[in-house]
Automatic annotation (TrEMBL):
Residues 2-679 form the Cilia- and flagella-associated protein 69 ARM repeats domain. Pfam families: CFA69_ARM_rpt. Gene3D superfamilies: Leucine-rich Repeat Variant. GO terms for cellular component: non-motile cilium; sperm midpiece. GO terms for biological process: olfactory behavior; positive regulation of flagellated sperm motility; response to odorant. This is CFA69 protein.
């Protein structure tokens, strides 16, 4: 009965005191502790609340009794705590009583901070394996509660448990129970605090030693599962740059383990380890690839990755599977590892760019991409995260290979660009872009959209500032680029990513066409200027600035101006009228004051924005441009003025009286700007 619990604990304390002097009290003390393992019973429904303080304090006392210097007592306390989690109803009830709620004792243990006491008691049994295992068994049950886990973390449970991992234990229970508790702490308490506790050099060494032991001497199925669980914890530690993974040698072990089957070079760290191609080894391989991806984000790990042959190991997978089936990975497993390895390569390649080039990675990737679009009868399984969208095709392989190329060209390294272009990358990428665009017309899929966006970016970087490459691009590229500008405007606002494709195509146009007369003429002849003005007429804020910028660049070509003069939009709108409308909308957005006829209101500051008026005078050095100058690059007004300078300010068709008023303001834009700058000097 709940009402008797506090009396029993008083007797327990008296027995504990006597036991120090007379061992004969050990047996009755254990018998009394057993009572806490029996179901509690209540007479009234309010008893649980009324006796909650006494019961929680009594259960807390069990934790304090762990200090009693008796193995028998410690083990019995743990057994009683484990029985808290036996939620079966009692077979026999006292007359007039009913059982307490199934989780009542568990709640009282939380209130009494029993879990914290048990964690602290581990220090008392460092050299007593049996008692330690019983405490861990009790903590396993207690750590299923978030409240208990937080208390345990406060008592430095993660650090204490990690240091015990590689203790002597023939049964293997010590590692199993400790890792299970660590997992519960990570799931139910603050992950950051747990990782911080595990991040000391001592803990990382302990974790490394137990993983190595499981690798070399763990032959059971459960050993392999446990090894993988610890590798997940190692992955979490690797994400924290403050954890000494490299200093402890743990990072090197994991990298060598990830690559030794691909590079086939002997290494004493993994001498004697044999990959079995079991499901657990497959999971381990993916975890190790993941660790490499994490380490690649740490600049201090670059040398480690380079010295341990990570680049050739990852490039091993940049090929079709030559020998599917036993005794190697199955076709499904190989595909998953292949996609994972290439995805990791996208992170590693920019860090090890010299190794990347020396391993002829560009050549391998271009050959692999050629296989991706050929007629080889290959059907992707699409079972993994990286295989999404790749079922029945090679699109996943194509996507991740392109992401590797994207990551290295984004370095703007001349050696990478020259190496790619010398192998005909521009022509090959255009073929893939055409292939992906045709497939996208059949079925609009996210993976195809990503592929097209990546190719457009790669081409933009390769052709930028190189007239010869722009000329190479123009032969096939402009014909492929034009359909992007004919995209149904309803799709642009559908939220499916079509706007990203259009922006990529505009960027590609700017980098791959402008600056090369042959390419520019080809684009204009294919009615490219008309298409740009059609897009501009949508008046989409995110597109206007870039399209106007492209038109300004194109305006040096005489054919551009004649095409702009000929263009007609909806309701016979002219290019001049469209530009004037955009100017008025921009001034409205910027808060520039005009009257109902479009005339100037503030004659002293005719084109100053509301933001500029609110801005206080800030002294700047002579080398620093003022806001009036900086605003030119962000506002579309300067671009519209530049286009009118080419179109002319007279004899423009399709303008109203209000348009002519706005046109007069545009014509004097530079004069107004000069006056603002002089006023600020």
């Amino acid at each position: 009965p709940l009402k008797n619990v506090s009396q029993i604990i008083e007797i327990l304390n008296l027995c504990a005191e006597k036991m120090i002097e007379q061992e004969a009290f050990t047996e009755p003390l254990c018998e009394l502790i057993k009572l806490f393992g029996l179901p509690f019973q209540k007479k009234k429904s309010t008893d649980e609340a009324n006796y909650s303080v006494e019961v929680s304090q009594s259960i807390a006392q069990l934790g304090y009794l762990m200090r009693v210097p008796s193995s028998q007592v410690k083990i019995q306390i743990c057994k009683s705590i484990v029985s808290f989690y036996n939620l079966e109803l009692p077979g026999k009830l006292l007359s007039g009583y009913q059982p307490t709620s199934a989780d009542y004792k568990i709640q009282m243990a939380e209130e009494g901070r029993l879990a914290e006491s048990l964690v602290l008691s581990l220090a008392l049994v460092e050299n007593q394996l049996t008692e330690k295992l019983w405490i861990l068994k009790a903590l396993q049950h207690l750590s299923t509660s978030g409240k208990n886990c937080r208390q345990m973390v406060e008592a430095q449970a993660a650090r204490r448990l990690c240091l015990y991992l590689n203790g002597a234990d023939p049964s293997g229970q010590l590692v199993f129970r400790s890792s299970d508790i660590l997992w519960n702490l990570l799931e139910n308490a603050s992950k950051e605090e747990v990782v911080d506790q595990l991040g000391s050099l001592e803990c990382v060494h302990a974790l490394k030693d137990v993983v190595l032991d499981l690798l070399m001497r763990g032959f059971r199925h459960c050993d392999h599962q446990l090894r993988n669980d610890l590798l997940v914890i190692a992955t979490l530690l690797a994400k924290n740059p403050a954890v000494p993974m490299i200093e402890s040698g743990f990072a090197k072990l994991l990298v060598v383990l990830a690559t030794f089957t691909e590079v086939k070079l002997p290494n004493p760290l993994v001498k004697g380890f044999k990959l079995t191609y079991s499901y657990e080894d497959f999971e381990m391989k993916k975890l190790l690839f993941n660790v490499i991806g994490i380490l690649s984000k740490d600049p201090s790990a670059a040398q480690l990755l380079s010295e341990n042959h990570v680049m050739p190991a990852l490039l091993y997978y940049v090929k079709r599977n030559q020998n599917p089936g036993l005794p190697d990975w199955s076709a499904t497993q190989y595909e998953e590892l292949q996609l994972h390895a290439i995805a990791v390569l996208a992170s590693v390649a920019p860090v090890l760019i010299d190794k990347y080039l020396s391993c002829q990675a560009n050549t391998l990737l271009l050959m692999f991409l050629e296989w991706c679009i050929d007629q080889d009868p290959f059907f992707g399984r699409g079972n993994s995260f990286h295989g999404t969208g790749g079922r029945g095709n090679k699109l996943a392989q194509m996507l991740y290979s392109l992401q590797v190329l994207r990551s290295v060209v984004a370095l703007y390294d001349d050696a990478v660009s020259i190496n790619l272009c010398d192998q005909g990358a521009i022509s090959q990428l255009l073929d893939i872009l055409l292939y992906a665009a045709d497939k996208f017309k059949e079925k609009e899929d996210t993976i195809l959209l990503e592929i097209q966006a990546d190719i457009l970016f790669i081409l933009s970087v390769l052709c930028e500032n190189d007239v010869h490459r722009k000329e190479l691009f123009s032969y096939e590229g402009i014909g492929i680029l034009i359909p992007f500008f004919k995209m149904d405007q309803r799709k642009l606002f559908s939220g499916l990513g079509h706007s990203r494709l259009l922006l990529g195509a505009l960027d590609c146009l700017w980098s791959c066409v402008i600056g090369c007369c042959i390419a520019e003429d080809c684009f204009i002849e294919k009615q490219g200027v008309f298409l740009l003005l059609d897009l501009l007429a949508l008046k989409e804020k995110s597109l206007c600035n870039i399209i106007l910028g492209i038109l300004v660049e194109f305006s040096d070509n005489p054919k551009t101006i004649s095409h702009m003069s000929i263009w007609r939009g909806k309701r016979d709108q002219t290019a001049a009228n469209l530009l004037i409308q955009l100017w008025r909308q921009e001034e409205l957005d910027l808060g520039v004051r005009r009257d109902q006829d479009g005339k100037i209101v503030d004659t002293k500051r005719p084109i100053v924005t509301s933001f500029q008026k609110q801005q206080k005078v800030i002294p700047l050095p002579a080398s620093c441009p003022s806001f009036a100058i900086m605003e030119i690059s962000e506002s579309i007004r300067a671009k519209i003025y530049s286009l009118f300078c080419k179109l002319g300010f007279e004899n423009l068709p399709g303008l109203s009286a209000k348009d002519f008023v706005t046109l007069a303001i545009i014509q004097r834009y530079i004069d107004f700007k000069v006056s603002i700058v002089q006023a600020n000097i």
